[in-house]
Design a protein that fits this description.
Blueprint (H helix, E strand, L loop, with lengths): L1 H17 L6 E6 L2 H5 L8 H4 L3 E7 L2 E7 L5 E4 H4 L7 H17 L13 H17 L4 E4 L3 H11 L4 E5 L8 E2 L2 E5 L4 H7 L2 E5 L2 H4 L2 H11 L3 E4 L4 H7 L3 E2 L7
Parallel strand pairs: 5-6, 5-9, 6-8, 9-10, 10-11
Antiparallel strand pairs: 1-2, 1-4, 2-3, 7-8
Helix pairs in contact: 6-7, 8-10
């Protein structure tokens, strides 16, 4: 978890520099799917299936969220945050959500809250369009199956130019929009070798896979772009490239 630990040290320095009181409190709670993403989105979104959830942190009236399969409530101080064991998925989610909320309060991070209602369906076309405009008709590797994004990558680039890996056994080996879903544990190397640009879910900072993803793309000398609101604060602190066209301010 080198990336998150580096972000934690930058976060600590930012808090000290901003003069925040270590005793200031942060409250975290899991959200119901409709709270997180609204009621008018397609059931293909993982949040709507209920297997993974969004947790939301509140700090000084500002919100930050994180996507996780280990949702848990938590309340503590800024000082308590730095005592969390980041080897735990639960704690990483809490820490990341809280970090996002604090950076939103300080005006240091944008899009710390998941988009809602129509916006999640607009996200896929927007991201695919931006990639095509910037890079041209490249081969894209998607790390983390997000159906709306995958569908629009295929629409813009063609199924032969898109590859995807995922960690969910229910997705691995299935064909989605003309693209077979590869195993994210065993076939990340295959994906990085086959693509020219990577697009990876920002929730990888919570599930513990971000370092491996970054190292593989760095080894290949290929750009990696992260997407989503979960990684908003970490991306800001460490200068990582991120796309989140419709994320809401916290």
């Amino acid at each position: 978890m080198d990336t998150l630990r580096k972000a934690r040290e930058s976060f600590r320095a930012l808090i000290e520099g901003a003069g925040l009181d270590p005793k200031d409190t942060v409250a975290v709670r899991p959200l119901q799917p409709e709270e997180a993403i609204g009621s008018r989105v397609d059931d293909s979104f993982v949040i709507k299936k209920g297997k993974e959830r969004v947790i939301e942190a509140l700090f000084q009236g500002h919100r930050g969220q994180a996507f996780t399969d280990r949702p848990s409530p938590w309340e503590g101080t800024l000082g308590d945050l730095f005592g969390l064991d980041l080897d735990s998925v639960r704690n990483r989610a809490i820490f990341v959500a809280a970090l996002n909320a604090v950076l939103a309060a300080l005006g240091k991070a944008r899009g710390t809250v998941h988009c809602r209602d129509e916006d999640p369906m607009r996200c896929g076309p927007e991201i695919a369009g931006r990639l095509l405009e910037r890079f041209g008709p490249i081969r894209v590797g998607l790390v983390g199956l997000q159906p709306a994004i995958l569908e629009n990558l295929v629409s813009r680039f063609g199924s032969s130019r898109v590859s995807v890996v995922d960690l969910n056994p229910e997705n691995i080996g299935k064909v989605r929009f003309g693209v077979e879903v590869w195993d994210g544990d065993r076939e990340l190397d295959r994906l990085t070798a086959s693509c020219e640009v990577g697009l990876a879910t920002g929730s990888s900072v919570v599930n513990g896979t971000l370092d491996g993803i970054r190292s593989r793309f760095q080894a290949e000398g290929k750009p990696l772009i992260l997407f989503g609101n979960t990684i908003s604060g970490v991306a800001e602190l460490l200068g990582l490239e991120r796309l989140c066209p419709f994320g809401s301010p916290g």
